[in-house]
Specification:
Elements: E1 2-6, E2 10-15, E3 18-24, H1 40-45, H2 54-57, H3 61-70, H4 75-82, H5 90-102, H6 109-117, H7 141-148
Antiparallel strand pairs: 1-2, 2-3
Helix pairs in contact: 5-6
């Protein structure tokens, strides 16, 4: 048996003792709340429907721009990026997209996932000066001895 549970902030769809869906509660007449993760399976079968869907058009402009400019005509390749919604909030994904684009990089699933999961790591804006890198001259004498059969 299915039922709805209301709290001040959320509406939950429950089936038996299992939580099936949770949405932020909307109070305006006729307002709808979409959860992108509910549509990912459908988009995997019909990726061309993605850019025209209501659920996609409600996402942040950075995510829409990413699809239209970097994944145009490759909607199926874009779906792994949207699967990140299973793990993170939209704001985190948008921040990771902007982080990569600000550095001239095309956001891929792998890069976005790495950025999101390693947020505490700061990438320096400028490379280290070469005079700070100290390397010793290699010593190949052990290798030479090995080739001569001395070792």
């Amino acid at each position: 048996m299915f039922g709805l549970k209301y709290s001040p902030d959320t509406v939950e769809l429950v089936g038996g003792n299992e939580l099936l869906a949770r949405h932020k509660r909307r109070f305006g007449k006729g307002e709808l709340a979409y959860d992108l993760t509910h549509f990912l399976k459908t988009f995997s079968r019909k990726p061309g429907a993605l850019p025209h869907s209501r659920v996609f058009r409600q996402l942040d402009e950075s995510i829409q721009h990413l699809l239209h400019h970097h994944y145009a005509g490759r909607h199926k390749d874009f779906l792994p990026i949207l699967s990140l919604f299973h793990e993170v909030a939209e704001e985190e994904l948008v921040a990771a997209i902007r982080f990569l684009e600000d550095r001239g990089m095309v956001p891929t699933y792998e890069a976005l996932r790495w950025i999101i999961m390693h947020q505490e790591v700061q990438v320096p804006d400028t490379p280290l000066p070469l005079d700070r890198l100290i390397m010793e001259e290699p010593n190949f004498s052990h290798y030479d001895d090995y080739l001569r059969g001395v070792l």
